[in-house]
Amino acid sequence: MKKTTSRSFISRVRASMADLHPSERRLAETVLNFPGDMAGYTASEVAELAGVSNATVSRFVRKIGYRSYEEARRAVRDAGRTGTALLRFGTAEGDPAHAVTAHLEQSRLNLEKTYNELDFKLVDDIVGSLHAAPKVWLAGFRAGYPLASYLAWQIGQVLPSVRLLPKPGETLAESAASFGATDVLIVLSLRRAPRTAASVVELAHDAGVHVGIIGDVAELEAMPARWRVACSTASKGPLLNHTSVLAVCNLIATRTLELAGPEGRQRMGRIEDIHDRLGEL
């Protein structure tokens, strides 16, 4: 079987199935059911869970291209931090109250870490540029899209030219062609975004757009941007915890409304008048 070192742990296991002996296949099926468990289990614990010997575990990890169980476990742990939610699955907590308490505590820790590192003058610098910009662009991909949509909706109450990317049915190029110097682009750059996200940032920067990035990716500091807001999204479960990202978006939106001035208040007033005329709310 051909081994490819760039393959993920899960893809290596799946590709090996036809070449495994019965006991190794049983081990493979076990780890595919809960691959994230490997990050916290010893080789002996995994062997016991699958009902195989320690020697089978050693043979198995070598067959899928790792030099040792520790190397395989390290790959699972690293991928769980930045990769698929599947690798953050573990055995479920039996006590729902404990699960809720753990989630609340993690959310609190994420908020504290994010706000302790946040430069509040930077927030108002972003907001001032939003008000001065001819056009404001909000971009988000995968998990970032609904958060970008939320921020666009909120600041759109006082800013007349807010656009959300990507638009349904439209290529990114069709929108990016309208980037203009002194526009502002805020990108929600969250883990496992497509490569297109970085390309949009580069295109906007090259066009003279003021770029702000809110996210949790390791490459945040390397991206060509005027503003960077790092958010903690640590989680003990399969899904990353985006509580702090939403909080930062809410903070920016709140300050945008608070600093809107007479024109912003007039726009909000017109919106309320039209709500009444249409009977929407």
Automatic annotation (TrEMBL):
PROSITE patterns: HTH_RPIR. Transmembrane segments: none annotated. Residues 7-83 form the HTH rpiR-type domain. This is MurR/RpiR family transcriptional regulator. It comes from Roseobacter sinensis.
